Hints:
- By secondary structure, this protein is α+β, with helices and mostly antiparallel strands.
- The protein folds into two domains: 2-42 and 160-313, Immunoglobulin-like, CATH 2.60.40.1400; 51-155, Helix Hairpins (Orthogonal Bundle), CATH 1.10.287.
- It has helices at residues 51-57, 60-85, 98-113, 126-155, 248-253; strands at residues 2-4, 90-91, 122-123, 161-163, 167-170, 177-184, 190-203, 211-216, 223-226, 231-236, 245-247, 257-266, 271-280, 284-286, 288-290, 294-297, 300-303, 311-313.
- α2 crosses α3 (98-113), α2 packs antiparallel against α4 (126-155) and α3 (98-113) packs across α4.
- The radius of gyration is 29 Å and the shape is elongated.
Amino acid sequence: MSIRMKRSFLTRSEGRDDFGFSTKVTGDQHRLINKDGSFNIKRKGKKTGDVYHWLVHMKWGRFLILAFSMFVFINLILAFAFLWIGIEEIQGTQPGTFVDNLRQAFFFSIQTFTTVGYGVLSPGGIGANWLAALSGFLGLFSFSIFTGLSFVRFSRPQARIRFSRNMLINNQEEVPRLLFRMVNLRRNKLFNVEANMIISWITREPGEQPIRRFAALTLARDRVIMFPANWTLVHYIDENSPLFGKTKEELIANHAEIMITVRAFDETYAQEVHSNYSYTADELIWDAQFELMYEATTTGTFLDLDRIDAYTYQA
Length: 315
């Protein structure tokens, strides 16, 4: 199966880096955009120590593990400090082995750190009182930072747009077409949704280094005012399309990747949100069409989000 294509398109100068990625190719040709929408670019060398950005964007699991680890680490250090002063400086403790003393000092530090104060343990000497004051200060300071970071992470504008697992190519109309679909996983409203699509591929000329090319793929409709259900986006593969005349084998050999960017106005955040996705050549399904995602009944229209990937092959 092939789609007629003008060969000259792959070598002309329009393939230069107009889309933010470098045209130079080094090493293995990996995809440019990961499946989670992040850019597949790793950085090394001199970096800016932006701890705030790192904490805001790390995954929730890692964030909670890091917060709990810091909580335990700080109180463990304070526990050793209490032991250095002397466990007898903490009223209500029962001196024993080193492990028993460390356990009592550790949990006393936690009680002071969290301002719980059960009333059983309390600082006695001047050194223990100063350490308890430091523990309380560090506790208030730490919880204020954790609360602020948690609020920023929860309130950060983020679209939850789900893309179909595969992109399809079919001849259902007179002109072959490339299509994929997406749906908003949230119940909120998205307005003025706009999508853009580009294709990247690698060309190899005899005696020259491989070069990455880019070209825009025009969508039949690239904007909708409202996005209440799923949206199937279509690119017609006519004589003006970069895909005209290409086979699946050629696209795979050229490491073709189709990248999508979506932006919309989110009523919940009252601001613009963005989402990215990409399909590699081996994720293209030929001679197939999507099945319906919604069902109209007497009680209303139901959208089945689990059917976003469902497709059937053409007869």
